[in-house]
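Hi Y.,

Following your request, here is the sequence exactly as I used it, all 279 residues.
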Amino acid sequence: MLSHNNQKKIALINDFTGFGRCSIAVQLPIISYLGVQCCPLPTSIFSNHTGFESFYFDDYTNRMDAYMDEWKKLDLRFEGISSGFLGSMEQIQFVEKFIEQFQTHRTQVIIDPVMGDNGKAYTTYTKDMCQEMKKLVHYADILTPNLTECCILTDTPYRDEKWHNNDLFHMADKLSKSGAKKIVITGIPMGGYIANIIYEKGLEPKVLKRRRVGKERSGTGDIFAAVISADAVNDVPFEASVKRAATFIKQCIEVTENRDIPSTDGVCFEDVLYKLPRS
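Below is the corresponding structure, written out as tokens. Let me know if you'd prefer a different format.
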């Protein structure tokens, strides 16, 4: 009998953006490079991302069920399910349904709760959507929030001043109690460094720091989640995966700064993809 399941696959539920190097456009080539077949399921189509003054947008919500049904007909099975930006309550609920229908004992679920940044939720995110995203956390084998998203998910007031490690560990522990098994809180400013908090049930939490380079750019969170997702299905240890992702993003930013690329245009990951070790 013909099988479509003789290679590791990740179902990637995210938006597709034609210009600006973010979401599916950066995640697909990175996941593929790391030896995993990437199967995108678009939540929406953008000509370029919302950081530009204008953009074309096509909401894909009403097509997602039919898209998923065709995958069910093919009996597709996934070693990974990875979700990114979700633009509505219906899309968050769709991801919950997708996980329930496709998850098996061998499936790693990676949730990147793309909800906000710099202390504020995105304007598209309502209180009801934030509450629904908390339910989605329950399904996560791996959760990759930034500091803002971590605060939203744990009902913790955001602040600009220095965070103590114990405060960050406490938030990670709270997320773990919500169901997430492995958590990395990303992009925490610590003086001249950017830190990631690594939390795994049963292990001591850790702080991993790298020296800050360049300016903030679109798409780096998507790149981070892509490396983490591919590594998860390739059985790379979680801490090693976080280190790999952070190092790769630093290399991406460095080469992008050298090219004098506008911050809206993302990072030149193409220039340094060969430096990303394959497992």
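The chain has one domain: 9-274.

Thanks again,
Q.
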